Every structure is written in structure tokens, then in C-alpha cells.
């Protein structure tokens, strides 16, 4: 299939209450509707008691239907498809590669080209950490395959609207405070 006909996956950002079971309820909605999640990243937001989720769904998915279905959940404070908006999106990867005295400098040079960091060096391996757009990470991983990848971990995409626009406007009039569930500090 020509690259110009490839559809771009949908990037959806949700502001959710930070309490046990939220991720499970959202995943259950995905499963019920037969949607495929390509990536999912969750972390605390700027507002205490709320977390921000960024998920990417496959291109065959009707994003409007996904947003409508998830917006029905009580745990979802706000949800938005930002696929066609001007966003900054990044992901992070750590790649452990086989290394030796003979190829260590080549791996370091490759990491520098991609503005990646060497975060661990062992007698027979190195860990490279890279942050950037998905294509940058893909390219680095492809080149590191020549050195034998031992282990690879990648985050999902995280995204924000460019400029002063926010994905979930703050409601100043009805300021709600969301309590973090006891003992829950992160996803």
C-alpha cells in the first residue's frame, strides 16, 4: 500500500479521576466496542486528583464513537480527539543492546546522532534512552538492531496542543477538587 494512502491513527486525550478501577473501566469500554489501543500513557495532571491519559487508537476506528462511549463514563472529566489539531507529541524508549569494547564507541556515536543518552554501561551491554517523535524512535531502534537488541521498552505517545491552547479548559466558576484515593499515588 502506498505511504500516501496510509491513515494516521487517532490521538485522544482524556482527563480522568485518579482513583482505583478507572483504567479497568476504560479498557472494558474499549474491549466491548472492539477497539484496538495502539498505545496508552497515563500520568498525573496539573490538577490534583486528576490524571491525563493519552491513547492512540488504530486508523480503522471511528474516533467520534470512541470519544462518545468514553465520555459516558463517570470517571472521565473531559475527553478530546486531537488527531487533526496542531500538537506536540513525543514518546520515550530505552533500548538495551549487546556491546563490547569493539563496538561501544559506534553505539555511543549513534546515540549522539539521535540526541539520545547512554544511561547504563555494562561489560557486555548498554542502555540507550531516547525521547522524540515515533519516527525518530523507530529509526534509532532499526539502526540499533545491527548490534543485537537485548531488550526494548517504549512508552506510549504523550501529546499537548501547541501554544497557549489547552486540551481540557479549566472551569474557573465551578472549581471541583478531586481527592486522590487513599494510598494511590500513581497509575
Largest sheet: 5 strands, antiparallel
Fraction of residues in β-strands: 25-35%
Show unreliable segments. Answer: none
CATH homologous superfamily (4th level) name of the largest domain = ACT domain
Shape: elongated
CATH classification class of the largest domain: Alpha Beta
Distance between the termini: 38 Å
Helix segment tally? 4
Secondary structure: number of strands: 9
Evaluate the radius of gyration.
Answer: 19 Å
Q: Give me the CATH fold name of the largest domain.
A: Alpha-Beta Plaits
How helix-rich are the residues, as a percent range?
10-25%
How do the strands and helices of this protein lay out in sequence?
Layout: E1 10-17, H1 22-33, E2 37-44, E3 50-57, H2 63-71, E4 76-81, E5 87-98, H3 104-113, E6 117-121, E7 125-132, H4 134-144, E8 149-154, E9 158-161
Antiparallel strand pairs: 1-3, 1-4, 2-3, 5-7, 5-8, 5-9, 6-7
What does it look like?
This protein has 187 residues and is α+β, with helices and mostly antiparallel strands. It folds into two domains: 3-86, Alpha-Beta Plaits (2-Layer Sandwich), CATH 3.30.70.260; 89-158, Alpha-Beta Plaits. The chain is 22% helix and 35% strand. The protein has helices at residues 22-33, 63-71, 104-113, 134-144; strands at 10-17, 37-44, 50-57, 76-81, 87-98, 117-121, 125-132, 149-154, 158-161. Strands 5, 6, 7, 8 and 9 form a five-stranded antiparallel β-sheet that branches. It has a four-stranded antiparallel β-sheet with strand order 2-3-1-4, with helices on one face. The two termini are 38 Å apart.
